[in-house]
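Thread: quick sanity check before group meeting

JM: Hey all, I'm pulling together slides for Thursday and realized we never actually wrote out the predicted structure for the chain we discussed last week. Dropping the sequence here so it's in one place. If anyone has concerns about the input, flag it before I start.
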Amino acid sequence: MARKKNDRINRKRIYFLFILLLAAFALISYRLVNIQYVYASDYKSDANKQHIDESILDAKRGKIIGRNGTELAISLIERTVCANPNFVKNPEQEAKILADYLEINVDEVIEKLSNKELGFVYIKRKVDAELAQKVIDLKLDGIFVQNESKRFYSQDFLAASIIGFTGIDNYGLSGIELEYEKYLRGVDGKIITDQDVAGTAIPNTHQQFIEPVNGNDVFITIDSQIQFIAEQKLEKAVNEFSAKQGMAIVMNPKNGEIYAMADYPNFNLNNYEEFDQGLYKSLCTSFTYEPGSTFKIINVSAALDNNCVSSDQYFHLPYKIQVGDREIREIFRRSAIDYTTKEIIQHSSNVGAVTIALSMGEKLFWESMKKFGFGELTGIDLPGEERGLLQNYQTWPKSTIGALAIGQSISVTPIQLLRAVSAVANGGYLVTPRVVKEIKIGEESITFEERDQKVKILKEETCNQVKDMMLSVVENGTGEAAQVEGVKVCGKTGTAEKANKNGPGYDEGRVITSFIGFAPYEDPEVAIIVVIDEPIGDENSIWGGTVAAPVFSELMQFSLQRLKISENYNF
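JM (edit): ok, ran it. Output follows.
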């Protein structure tokens, strides 16, 4: 009996051991399948990370080059202090030494050097060569220096919001640097080598070199000298009238090339982080405002083009007019007068402008404004453009058409308005503004001159009539301060009250003064807008014709000379 009992126990033990072996075999098989098949790629990747080292070779970012060949943005080689924490023997001691040399926080350095899970950390990026050499001479364990590209802007403040800047990793963050990132950036290269467990390269083993592809040079339409004068004149006007800010654009009305696009105040591209971020975006494309009397050009152009009025038509104009629930008055006149359409523009008559708008009616007036591009993006090749605001005529209260006639109840950007008025200058075509002329790609190049087709929006006859009216504004009207000796200049003044901050209506103490125009009259090749926001002074001296027009005059004269358009004229 005892023997049979022992046999049963032994058989149970054998069965148990057999089952245990089966379970162990199944577990091993499961692990093998996972390792060799299910998670094979993950393990292979981890293994490669341990014995393959990849060193990034930075691509050199392309240059940004001005119209006259000035290199406005280039890349310099700087040194970056790095560390491999696995080779740092005394993190606290080395951190104190590095913090003292590099003027950085010692606790942050200790934390980086103590993290043994990391094989690479930045200690301080983009230091000058002399300081980097001092760190090298220290011969600290695990500390090394590598080359890194740093963006440098040769003209500091010049065209800052247009050129834009890059971040610490050389990616574009604003302006052309952002808009044309894919062309400027290039493609980083690599050096791939085999390494041992300590991270040391193994000699005579596999090594792969992938050469970086440098970025492409971008040639822009900005003329650095016209840009400099524009910024200089704006700064002078803003300071003279204690204004909030100013902006100016100089453009070729025939093809949309921007010669200058200036804001004041502006910022230094080489230390942009020290300035208010609100300065980073160009006011010329992002600042929206009610244009005031400069918009009368659009109003009259639309009415003439739609045969609602004629250029020599007479109007009997009282000094005030009721439109819906709003009464619109003349600023200086207190009696009725007879004006032609031309004289309405010449003397900037509010009642006359309203009368002309009413001749079109709401639907036709709105459709005409849409043709000029208001309420839409211009398509300029810069990030952050605003589209302004133009409400559909079906939602207008009765008074809106009267407000729009004198440049109220609509918001525009300076570039929108200059683009629209340029259609008068060029014979009726709406062009697309642009700041990039060409991109060099190796031996070839991409040009943008014919990127966008011109859209015909006005008859040539209409343009010639409006040009005559704008000429009379400068020669005998509200814009005499915009005259340029020896050249016939067309223009229009604007003085617009700003909307109340705390409710409906307008704040009489806050205005935007502006002047817009083009020259020469015979064949316009330069169009300019100047906007000065909230100038301060005697109420009888703060007008578009007294604040913005003189800036326009000086900028127009310099631009004509600089572009050699002035050779046929006597300054």
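AS: nice. The chain has 18 helices and 21 strands. The radius of gyration is 35 Å.
JM: adding both to the slides.
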